[in-house]
Write a structure and sequence with these properties.
three-stranded antiparallel beta sheet, 41% helix, 7% strand, disordered N terminus
Length: 214
């Protein structure tokens, strides 16, 4: 993209723990794509479309990144969720750069020995699964802060696509179905077992999923 045209756009990168690598042969087959009025990429085509629609409504890159982040929380929670945190790197149209850090923080009542037993030994898995493993989420606050400070649209416009996906449902991809059905931890707790049974019906009958408890 020409330099003058490039400077007209602000850019926001939403980092939500989606890491991966390509083999040299696969990487060699990739060809760059170009967009002259904006471009959105994410782990879900549904979420990416939400971002593209946000730009078409007059939103900027920050609005689109936030809308995609909330949409990913619904359609592909492994790549984005409102119960976690992340970072956003921003380049504004005038060339200024900034970052928003909304990583999770430890609960105020957290103690240094909360993962130890009475003998002082580490309890396996206690820091990874269960209520003690969760930090205080930062995603909603962080995306809200970024959108309020650097976005152009109203907050309702940014979160509405995610709300609609959660309320009306969406097609379940094979990747999402496999990640949920192969999760050993979902079967360990009553609430997640209920979700798992709900998903089994959805996948077997090929109907859209709705996040009824979101």
């Amino acid at each position: 993209m020409p330099g003058n045209a490039y400077r007209r756009f602000s850019i926001a990168f939403l980092m939500l723990y989606a890491f991966g690598s390509l083999s040299p042969s696969a990487e060699a087959q990739l060809r760059p794509d170009r967009g002259y009025h904006g471009m959105v990429a994410s782990a879900s085509s549904i979420a990416s479309q939400v971002g593209a629609d946000t730009l078409k409504q007059g939103g900027n890159a920050i609005d689109a990144a936030c809308a995609v982040g909330f949409a990913l929380a619904v359609v592909y929670p492994a790549a984005g969720n409102i119960g976690g945190g992340g970072f956003m790197l921003i380049r504004l149209a005038d060339g200024r750069t900034t970052a928003v850090d909304y990583r999770e923080t430890a609960p105020a009542a957290a103690q240094h020995n909360m993962y130890l037993d009475t003998t002082g030994a580490v309890v396996p898995g206690l820091s990874l699964v269960g209520y003690r493993a969760a930090g205080v989420p930062g995603t909603v606050y962080g995306l809200g802060l970024a959108q309020r400070k650097y976005g152009k649209l109203k907050w309702e416009q940014v979160v509405e696509p995610a709300r609609k996906l959660a309320a009306e449902g969406f097609p379940v991809s094979k990747a999402l179905a496999d990640s949920l059905l192969n999760s050993k931890n979902l079967a360990r707790f009553p609430e997640s077992r209920l979700l798992l049974r709900h998903l089994l019906v959805i996948i077997s009958e090929r109907v859209p999923v709705d996040n009824f408890d979101l």
